[in-house]
Amino acid sequence: MDAEKTSRFVRLQVELILEVTDEDELTQAAVNRLAGDPEVTEAERAHAESAVTEDTEEALASLVDPFSLVSGVPGVELQQASWSSEQIDYDPDSPEWDLGEDDRSDDDEEDGIG
Predict the structure, then answer these.
(1) For residue 10, which of 104, 73, 53 has the smallest C-alpha distance?
(2) Which pTM value belongs to this model?
(3) N or C: which end of the chain has fewer CB within 10 A?
(4) How does pLDDT run across 32-58, given as a tens digit for each residue?
């Protein structure tokens, strides 16, 4: 492929399934991070603390930092990131939980990918 026609931007998709083994510890870690952030105003902190103490998924999402995942990778600069978390029913023995299986598009199959 000609370098001039190739986009310099790459979308990296990562899916993680985590088991929350201690909700209180997770919540406290989120509250502690907020308390130690000098850039968060008191009003923002109060709102965020309310969110992370009421919702485990919100506490987890507040602790995930996409920048830290790629900050040590040479030759790249994070342009945009979004992430979310949700509670799910998970059975690791179920074939429906094979990661990546449902991520293939019909185009990939036509191109011989997958």
Answers:
(1) 73
(2) 0.69
(3) N
(4) 999 999 999 999 999 999 999 999 999
